[in-house]
Design goal:
mainly alpha
Amino acid sequence: MTKAIYDSRAKDYHSDFRRMVYNSQQEMEKVIGQLAENSFINQQTRELKIFKKKVEQIKKSFRL
């Protein structure tokens, strides 16, 4: 799911239609920010890591 979120947001950065309102890539990044620094994507990535850790803990508890 996090990959789909990233891919969806990345379209905004690569779409000629969306980029045409900006004079340059730098201007666009000033307005909408850099893709790598997107807070929603970063939040989802952190939550995924936490979820994976919890799943591993649960799996370990069943091994005993």
